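Figure 2 data, in text form.
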Amino acid sequence: MNTRLTVRSFANHEVRDFSDIESRLMHLGFVHGELIKITKKAPIFKEPLLVEVRGRSIALSFSEAEMICVEVAQ
């Protein structure tokens, strides 16, 4: 898999009051400009995703991953 992406924003970036999940994701390193890598997906339901950020592997549900706006890294 090893898809490399760059974090751009969160789906609700215009809202200043971040939800608990968005706040947790930011604390884990999902911040603007951060390079992330999707390393694995569960084979049947595609959940969870295993994502590497700042050298750490983090499992995300599909609904958590949907909140993160990304673009393909150059």
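Caption note: Residues 20-28 form the longest helix (9 residues).
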